[in-house]
Amino acid sequence: MRKVLVALALVASATACDGGGPAAKGVTVVVSAPVSAAPWVAESVVNGARLAVDELNADGGEVTLVTLDHGNDVQRALANAREAVSRKAAVLITDGVGAVAVAGVTGPANLPTFIVYEGGEGLVDEQARPVLFRMAPANRPMTIRLADYIAGKKPRIALVTDDSGYGRDGREDLKKAIERDKLSLLSAVEVATGADPAPQVLAAQKSGADTVVVWARAPMVASVVTAIRSRGWDVPVYSGPTAEDPLVRQQLAAHPEWLDGLEFVSFRITAEIGPEPFRKFREAFEKKFGPDRIGVGDVVQPPDWAMYSYDTVHLLDAALARSKGALGKPLLDAFNEVSITGANGDERSFLPRNHEGVSSDDMYIARFEDMRFKPVRDDFLSASLPEVPQ
Fold first, then answer.
1. How far apart are CA 242 and CA 275, in angstroms?
2. pLDDT in tens, 78-130
3. pLDDT of 320-336, one tens digit each?
4. pLDDT of 20
């Protein structure tokens, strides 16, 4: 795994855009990420931002990137938000832990705050929290997409979630999606973070369920799959995008066959225009940081989640051009008026009444085979996507 660079400082005097090169001059970008608790998530967030900052600085920009660890702790995330405000940062980029509370800190300072991982429906509220924007896909369209995908199989579902904010938000969205499609929910259990899910898995099996849906952080996804397969329960398992975290495969490395067939919903990696934009982004990313060899055979993880922090930094540059270098409220307003072409070729932009950066039409279903995932073939959108080399 690549080492997270904790701070990159390329500081120069603050000037407004002079008409040549990037508009980001003398600004600070703060990243708040779970460096000590979820390394792959943190690396994706930090290194995506690093690559964009380096590109801007190489073109004449003057940007300081500072990374702060919150360790998946809300209080530390709040402290990091206060630090970002005290540094007069142009933007705060976060995976989303404690986002609502964080907005209580960044809101009064008019500090644009971008969520690049968490998908909880209640996080983004343009009226209550106008400083919050989300680049990452929201849970609600993903859970609807997943429920629609499995609906034709007429599943009897056991739902397993963990007690993280991510798990609880997903639990509510999944219940709504299951009800919307009139599917049978036979069991819905929550597992404490770090606990053995074997009792909950046994309860799910005894409920008569023939399908398990897991919405939890990566360590729990791996633990649930282990508990299911070690019992000899040959049941289809579906999950959210955390299944892609290399930690899942690392924890199942002794039994790779247990992961085969697991399907998960996430955002499509390549856009409608084809795979070339993502290929170029990946080439630049791996040139700087090296391929992400996950430590399981020769499998290499594509830098898909890193696109969101990368795009955020480039969107910041566009917004600074619109605000003529002004931070605070002028910059916040500018984010509602600009757009860029993102790393994979999709447009990235926001409106005052819509602070969601990923279209609900961009969700796909992937399936694991031999520790690699690829689009499923029995879904129209997914079948149209190319496989991403791993």
1. 23
2. 999 999 999 999 999 999 999 999 999 999 999 999 999 999 988 999 999 99
3. 999 999 999 999 999 99
4. 64
CA-based radius of gyration for the chain: 21
* Measured distance CA(128)–CA(84) in Å, rounded: 21
What residues pair up with 31 in beta bridges, in sequence order? 67, 93
174, 237, 262 from 221: Cα distances, Å: 16, 10, 11
CATH node for 7-136+278-291+303-358: 3.40.50.2300
286 within 8 A of 60, measured Cβ to Cβ: no
Of 169, 198, 174, 197, which is closest to residue 185 (Cα–Cα)? 174
CA distance to 150, 250, 264, 286, 289, per residue, from 293 (Å): 32, 11, 21, 11, 11
Rounded Cα distance, 293 and 64, in Å? 28
**Reported pTM:** 0.93
pLDDT digits (tens, 9 = 90+) for 117-149: 999 988 999 999 999 999 999 999 999 999 999
Whole-number average pLDDT of the chain: 94
Burial of 11 (0-12, 13-18, 19+ CB in 10 A): exposed
> Nearest-CA neighbor of 192 among 224, 222, 227, 164?
164
* Domain definitions of the chain by residue range: 7-136+278-291+303-358, 140-267+363-383
CA dist 215 and 164 (Å) reads 10
pLDDT number for residue 16: 34
226: number of Cβ within 10 Å: 20
Determine whether 133 is exposed, middle or buried from the number of CB atoms within 10 Å of its CB (0-12, 13-18, 19+).
buried
Give the DSSP letter of residue 369. Answer: E
d(CA 160, CA 167): 9
Q: Are 16 and 325 in contact (CB under 8 A)?
A: yes
Distance CA 121, CA 361 (A): 17
| Residue-level length of the chain | 390
Q: Which CATH class is domain 140-267+363-383?
A: alpha beta
Q: Do residues 319 and 328 lie in contact, with contact meaning Cβ atoms separated by under 8 Å?
A: no
Q: How far apart are the first and last CA of the chain?
A: 15
